[in-house]
Design a protein that fits this description.
The complex is a heterodimer.
Chain A lengths: L1 E5 L3 H7 L10 E3 L19 H5 L8 H7 L4 E3 L3 H17 L4 E5 L2 E5 L1 H7 L2 H12 L6 E5 L2 H10 L5 E3 L5 H5 L11 H9 L5 H5 L3 H19 L16 E11 L2 H16 L9 E10 L4 E12 L2 H8 L10 E11 L14 H18 L5 E5 L11 E5 L3
Parallel strand pairs in A: 2-3, 6-7
Antiparallel strand pairs in A: 1-5, 1-6, 4-5, 8-11, 9-10, 9-11, 12-13
Helix pairs in contact in A: 1-4, 5-6, 12-13
Chain B lengths: L8 E5 L1 E2 L4 E2 L2 E3 L5 E4 L2 E14 L7 E10 L4 E7 L5 E3 L4
Antiparallel strand pairs in B: 3-9, 4-5, 5-6, 6-7, 7-8, 8-9
The chains are: A alpha+beta, B mainly beta.
Chain lengths: 398, 92
């Protein structure tokens, strides 16, 4: 069977770890700043139970939410902290034997077949999974023969509850659930509601061809999910590569040229790490700690895996323009690498001998003087009238 | 079980190049230095002022002097008008 672990409002819970007192007050995850790409009007993120009791709902317009509950506190998103917390949870699950497929922040799937025997049955295995996640997150588990049915079960379960839906009960279980469980655009829900379709059972009862004709491929997919979804196995993820390089600035930096130069250094240093050797970068992330205390993160999958610093830098650099505030720390993470590949050697490598001698010399300096003794100078603001802000030195241990 | 590689994250703290260093400077009534780190100043080659970041809470108010010491050493010192004190600085 397929199990789904769900932690509703995960990003808000992760952001509230820094200010736990807000968890008991009406609070919501602040919308992305207006003007950032992909955002139209500011819509509210997940909300706390107190906010929900005051009439505030996730996805509400910000103005509407503040009019409904003037005491509503807005919590700045902390995507880096959320990613880190989620990675810790997924690792805890992997450490106790589950091959996890993390679908999104706060939602993960795994097959129960292998671990049932390990823990002496389905329920003990699921209890072990909940224990691995920890009680602070209010996780819930849904189990069914299909992925979507498991997600639906987890969505209606209470915190800490295990909800198992047997194959023969699946149709009856899904029928009364709301359409909002389906991954559809807002206007599709409205279209279906206008047709009088409000429950999964009503959609599943319609002829598939008619749904496809009226609602297109999205509708056909939703119709398939309303009937339980396709039977497919869950494949556990490959643990991420975990190669990260960070640069802490002596003071907050907002200048794009400075950030671009720092990015160049970080990309080169990350690529030079021995763990990366002979492998190409498939997915990379750029993160920053902001002067306001929050964080920012953007990940990027390269069209073609590459190990060229220039290509990766060119791909990441435009993201720097999306930074919402000055940064105190910039970070480059190599999230996914390809399998080791053969390397074409040059018959006569230009300057290879010099480079090799230089590398040996630097290695000796490091061995005698310790880590951090070899540095690269990076010009960050050569135009500055204050000499100490013109250049930084960055330790190199590669 | 799923095996994980070791922790391969690295945090590098960047340092500033040409960071000012405190200096022991004796000055004349007009503010020009006559002794730097116990060495007499032979000649003041140049003098300039830097006023910057006046819009922040940490404004920069410096009076720089490029001097030649008795030993022949050419050095740059400045008086910090905001925090007080004398400093030497390379790369100025």
């Amino acid at each position: 069977m397929i199990a789904c672990i769900s932690i509703p409002g995960f990003e808000l819970k992760a952001a509230l770890r820094k200010a736990p007192s807000l968890a008991l007050r009406p609070a919501a995850l602040a919308p992305e700043p207006v003007g950032s790409p992909g955002t139209g009007e500011p819509l509210l993120g997940p909300v706390t139970a107190a906010a929900e009791a005051a009439g505030v709902r996730p996805g509400m317009r910000l103005g509407e939410a503040l009019a409904t509950c003037p005491r509503l506190m807005l919590v700045d998103p902390d995507p880096a902290a959320a990613e880190q917390a989620w990675e810790e949870i997924v690792r805890s699950l992997e450490d106790v034997g589950f091959a996890v497929d993390p679908a999104a922040l706060g939602i993960a799937y795994f097959e129960t077949r292998g671990v049932e025997r390990l823990y002496g049955g389905l329920e003990p295995a699921l209890r072990r999974a909940l224990a691995a996640v920890g009680s602070a997150w209010d996780a819930r588990v849904g189990v069914a023969g299909r992925r979507f049915a498991a997600l639906a079960a987890a969505s209606v379960a209470r915190p800490g509850q295990l909800l198992v839906v047997r194959d023969e009960e699946m149709g009856r279980f899904l029928a009364p659930l709301p359409l909002t469980l389906l991954p559809l655009e807002r206007q599709r829900y409205e279209e279906l509601e206008a047709l009088g379709v409000r429950r999964l059972g009503q959609l599943a009862g319609l002829p598939g061809g008619a749904v496809a004709e009226r609602l297109g491929p999205d509708g056909q997919r939703a119709w398939g999910l309303a009937r339980g979804g396709a039977a497919a196995r869950v494949r556990g993820r490959r643990p991420p590569a975990e190669l990260a390089e960070s640069l802490e600035f002596p003071e907050a930096v907002a200048n794009e040229l400075t950030l671009r130069r720092a990015l160049g250094v970080l990309v080169e240093t990350a690529l030079a790490r021995p763990e990366r050797r002979d492998r190409f970068v498939r997915k990379v992330a750029l993160g920053a700690r902001l002067v306001s205390g929050g964080s920012w993160r953007r990940s990027l999958t390269l069209r073609e895996p590459s190990a060229e610093a220039d290509r990766i830098r060119v791909a990441l650099a435009p993201r720097l323009a999306e930074l919402p505030a000055p940064v105190v720390e910039l970070r480059v993470e190599i999230v996914e690498l390809t399998d080791p590949a053969g390397r074409q050697l040059e018959l006569l490598a230009a300057g290879a001998e010099d480079r090799s001698r230089l590398r040996d010399g630097l290695r000796q300096v490091r061995a005698s003087s310790g880590s951090g003794s070899v540095c690269t100078v990076v010009e960050v603001a050569p135009w500055s009238r204050i000499p100490e802000t013109r250049a930084l030195f960055v330790p190199r241990d590669d | 079980m799923v095996a994980h590689s070791g922790d391969t994250r690295a945090l590098r703290t960047a340092g500033r190049l040409s960071e000012p260093r405190p200096a022991r400077v004796e000055s004349n009534f007009d503010g020009t230095p006559w002794q730097v780190n116990h060495q007499p100043v032979v000649v003041v080659r140049e003098e300039w002022r830097v006023l910057d970041r006046w819009w922040t809470e940490e404004p920069v108010v410096r009076r720089y002097f490029e001097v030649v010491l008795e030993s022949g050493e050419n050095t740059v010192v400045f008086h910090d008008g905001a925090g007080g004190g004398w400093f030497t600085q390379r790369g100025a």
